[in-house]
Write a structure and sequence with these properties.
Strand content: 5-15%
Strand order of the largest sheet: 1-2
Structural class: mainly alpha
Bound molecules: zinc ion
Order of helices and strands: HHEEEE
């Protein structure tokens, strides 16, 4: 779980957060007495998700581009290990995970 398609996972989480904040704001209309509290809460959640989107943008510009050896498409590797965003193959930048050609 930790190694798989991090950028996509964070993106999904941020999208879910947007939906949650819309639901929270909608609850304000259902319950008019505390509407302002729900609206404020929803706006806070939306600004958090905007922050997450911005953070993803920064992360993805820093992530190195690699050619996936399995599907021959370009993908990004976040951290030392990540999943190919096209075919879910696990890619690693760690030299310890390089295939060992020479017998020890
Ligand atoms: Zn791939």
């Amino acid at each position: 779980m930790l190694l798989s398609g991090k950028l996509n996972k964070i993106r999904t989480a941020a999208l879910l957060l947007v939906f949650i904040s819309i639901i929270v704001m909608y609850l304000g209309f259902v319950w008019p007495a505390v509407m302002s509290i729900f609206i404020a809460l929803g706006l806070i959640l939306i600004s958090v998700s905007v922050g997450i989107y911005f953070w993803i943008g920064v992360l993805s510009t820093h992530a190195p581009h690699v050619m996936c050896p399995v599907c021959q498409k370009k993908t990004k590797v976040l951290g030392k290990k990540d999943e190919c965003s096209h075919c879910k193959a696990i890619l690693s930048l760690d030299p310890n995970d390089a295939p060992q050609d020479k017998p020890k």
